[in-house]
Amino acid sequence: MLMITAKAMSSYMDLNADPCHDFYQYACGNWGIENPIPNDETAYDTFEILRENLDAVLKKLLEEQPTNKYHALSSKIWRNDAITKAKYLFQSCMNYDILEQRAEQPLLNLLDQLGGWPMLKPDWDSSQFDWVLLMAQLKLFGNDVLISEWVGPDIKNSDEYVIQFDQTSLGLPTKDYFLQPSNKMYLEAYKNYLIKISTLLGAPLDDASQQAEALINFETRLAKITSAPDERQNLSELYQRMSVGELRQLVPQIDWVQYLSLVLAHRVSISEPVVVFALKYIQDLVTLLGKTPSRTVANYLLWRFVRHRVSNLDDRFREAKQQFYYILFGREQAPPRWKDCISEVNDYFDMALGAMFVNKYFDEKSKSDTVEMTKEIMQSFLELLSETDWLDEETKDMAAQKLNAMTLRIGYPDFILNRQLLNERYKDVVIRPDQYFENTLNILQHLTREEQDRLGTPVNKSLWDTAPAVVNAYYSRNKNQIMFPAGILQPPFYHRFFPRSLNYGGIGVVIGHEITHGFDDKGRLFDKDGNLHQWWHEEAIEEFHDRAQCLIDQYSHYTVREVAMHVDGISTEGENIADNGGIKEAFRAYQRWLDENGDFNETLPGINATGDQLFFLNFAQIWCGAMRPEATRNKLQTGVHSPGKFRVIGTLSNSEDFASVFNCKLGTPMNPIKKCSVW
């Protein structure tokens, strides 16, 4: 294990680079040579390699035949057994012969049930059209079009579920794709994709082209009334709580009682509270819709629905999507079908697939190790908090209370190992091995019903709502909870036989990162119970903003030369705060571990580096990667994370610990005189 790890780490390094000049080049300079971007990827990095390895394991699990006991009862089991349902969903997705035989007919049947897609029907009757009714029908399949609605904890009272409304996404990544002349080629590709899908479903080319033009013009006007992320930074300003009756007075053009009664499947009172995050958008939307022909509105609503549902059809539609993705993201070919099928099963049967993975592959020792490391890294944050000279004592005390109240979820929820409880979770979902299209609809309706039915029930903050078999980690502001799924507890983040230098530089930094999210630009707005309110003194808020502004300015100066674009220091602020705090906390915890245990076995064979240096090397190599130019442009416009290179350079150039460990002289690029620090 150690020899393999050392060999891989060495192969990525550029030993000709000066670690004090560009540590990313030093740690990752040969990564791209060793790992060219596969044709079916838009980017390739350490995370993606881990995801691919995990997907291969999940594929093997899903392809295993049921035991004789279950096989004999298969006609009955698909109605009851969650794991069998997950396998049947995978089978239905992979059974291409049936998909080819059925072609587009399942979608056409569904569109007829929804009143017909005008793109396909020259004689479509607008007199029967009600956009609010259609929007509600699409919501039942999990599609938020025009307006986003969900039932979730109230951000100002996290113990109460409440109906919430917001603006929704557009058909391209950001509004600028519609509005900036420099993005014209992407808008044209989007229109061509719409036309191609329409004609595959039977629309005459001339009709499809004409209606597509009207649809794109409408969505461009929609983009103009949509707020960009940097206009939505202040949650307190966006938040407006009111009754359904009050919302009806503010936006009388929408029958809110009818819409909510359909979505919630029960009559809604006008006194029912709702939270609205985009009131002006909704008011502007109804004005726009009042000026738009019904045919165009219906075309748009159903296009946003159709675009998702063609993923459940045959390969003609996958090829059309690939042509669009090549222009939008630079992806050279579609991934093999099995990868998409694995992703869908993990989205829809996350706990069932997680149970299969955990039962066979999860090392329980990693759970106890991660719990212990989390305690140590929380202790580091408390120490940094006590040493902070810009916070008043009362705010410090409340921040410490928040940290101590932070809950931890590691690996998986216990219930998934109880077959009866696992089956209960999916008992209402019907899955057949030969009906992929219907299977997906059944799951989407089930998930929507499950979410909407939470209204009126107490919030259970111990609920685990993340797939166990994923390579990621999370912090929930509403729950004040950090979560590390089983899928991330593997090399290079963690291994029980790794030197502690690698574990602290890997999963340790991730733990510190997630803890720090509780105190970043948005996390700090929420108290220990997950409620949004001002618990900081005004002077402390000003001091925080001054320090955060230093990071915003620092990262905004970074340029991605390949596309001649700057990093957006405002959009990435929270992640940059978490990166900078996380590495400081993890290194401090590692030093404490060394004080107690010594530095024996803290190095790797064949790598001339101390344990302290390996800590920073492993941190950096987690962010080794490459990305196609088109995908880079998209990420810089839409992402909340800085590119991997600048997550390394930005974080380490602010670290006194790093400069000391690598003996970087003050004034070198990796040890600048001016450094930024929030925590």
From TrEMBL:
<dbReference type="GO" id="GO:0046872">
    <property type="term" value="F:metal ion binding"/>
</dbReference>
<dbReference type="InterPro" id="IPR008753">
    <property type="entry name" value="Peptidase_M13_N"/>
</dbReference>
<keyword id="KW-0378">Hydrolase</keyword>
<protein>
    <recommendedName>
        <fullName>Endothelin-converting enzyme 1</fullName>
    </recommendedName>
</protein>
<feature type="domain" description="Peptidase M13 C-terminal">
    <location>
        <begin position="472"/>
        <end position="678"/>
    </location>
</feature>
<keyword id="KW-0325">Glycoprotein</keyword>
<dbReference type="Pfam" id="PF05649">
    <property type="entry name" value="Peptidase_M13_N"/>
</dbReference>
<feature type="domain" description="Peptidase M13 N-terminal">
    <location>
        <begin position="19"/>
        <end position="413"/>
    </location>
</feature>
<keyword id="KW-1015">Disulfide bond</keyword>
<comment type="similarity">
    <text>Belongs to the peptidase M13 family.</text>
</comment>
<keyword id="KW-0645">Protease</keyword>
<dbReference type="InterPro" id="IPR018497">
    <property type="entry name" value="Peptidase_M13_C"/>
</dbReference>
<keyword id="KW-0812">Transmembrane</keyword>
<keyword id="KW-0862">Zinc</keyword>
<dbReference type="InterPro" id="IPR024079">
    <property type="entry name" value="MetalloPept_cat_dom_sf"/>
</dbReference>
<dbReference type="GO" id="GO:0005886">
    <property type="term" value="C:plasma membrane"/>
</dbReference>
<dbReference type="GO" id="GO:0004222">
    <property type="term" value="F:metalloendopeptidase activity"/>
</dbReference>
<dbReference type="InterPro" id="IPR042089">
    <property type="entry name" value="Peptidase_M13_dom_2"/>
</dbReference>
<dbReference type="Pfam" id="PF01431">
    <property type="entry name" value="Peptidase_M13"/>
</dbReference>
<keyword id="KW-0479">Metal-binding</keyword>
<keyword id="KW-0735">Signal-anchor</keyword>
<dbReference type="InterPro" id="IPR000718">
    <property type="entry name" value="Peptidase_M13"/>
</dbReference>
<dbReference type="GO" id="GO:0016485">
    <property type="term" value="P:protein processing"/>
</dbReference>
<keyword id="KW-0482">Metalloprotease</keyword>
